[in-house]
Amino acid sequence: MVGSMGMAAPAGPGVALARPGRHAVVLDGDGSFAMNSGALLMIAGHNPDLVHVVCDNGVHESTGGQRPVRIAGPAGMALAAGYAAAYTVASAEELAAVEAEPGVTSLLHITCASRGAHAGKRVEWTPQQLVARFRTAAAA
């Protein structure tokens, strides 16, 4: 979902449900999560085999380092929406201790440091190219 901030989570259940028997992972940033937190209810309602990862570095790093709206407890929000499990981790040791259940919808909130460097070039692919890349990857 490069270039579509806030839209990874809403697309996740479609990917998971289109590929039964395969585990899906949604990678979200804290700012993206805040932009579309309403998707939590839709995701929980479909209960796909999906892990929703929220990397929380405290900045909109890809758009210039602005501070995002702070969301209190993404893991708690996910549980309240109906996710089967949710975890918050702040270290590699805590991450290694997480034992996610396969076949259920869960959220993993990872607090991490920002890169501290410029995010790089903007997205150069057209929407059509992004769709083609996604279709190729999804077919693998």
Q: Which helices and strands occur, and which strands form pairs?
A:
Layout: H1 8-18, E1 24-29, H2 30-35, H3 39-46, E2 50-56, H4 74-81, E3 85-89, H5 92-97, E4 105-111, H6 127-139
Parallel strand pairs: 1-2, 2-4, 3-4
Helix pairs in contact: 1-3
Can you give keywords for this protein?
single chain; 140 residues; alpha/beta; Rossmann fold; 4-stranded parallel β-sheet; globular
TL;DR of this structure?
The protein is α/β, with parallel strands linked by helices and 140 residues long. The chain has a single domain (8-139), classed as 3-Layer(aba) Sandwich (Rossmann fold), CATH 3.40.50.970. Strand 3 (85-89), helix 5 (92-97) and strand 4 (105-111) form a beta-alpha-beta unit.
Please give a structural write-up:
There is one protein chain. The protein is built from 6 helices and 4 strands; from the N terminus they run H-E-H-H-E-H-E-H-E-H. The chain is α/β, with parallel strands linked by helices and 140 residues long. It has a single domain, classed as Rossmann fold (3-Layer(aba) Sandwich). Strands 1-2-4-3 form a 4-stranded parallel sheet. Helix 1 (8-18) packs parallel to helix 3.
DSSP strand content: 15-25%
CATH class: Alpha Beta
Number of strands: 4
The gyration radius over C-alpha positions equals 15 Å
Uncertain residue segments: none
Q: What is the terminal-to-terminal distance?
A: 18 Å
CATH superfamily: Thiamin diphosphate (ThDP)-binding fold, Pyr/PP domains
CATH topology: Rossmann fold
List the secondary-structure elements in sequence, H or E: HEHHEHEHEH
Number of domains: 1
Largest sheet: 4 strands, parallel
* Overall pLDDT: 85
| Strand order, sheet with most strands | 1-2-4-3
Helix content: 25-40%
Helical region count?
6
Shape: globular
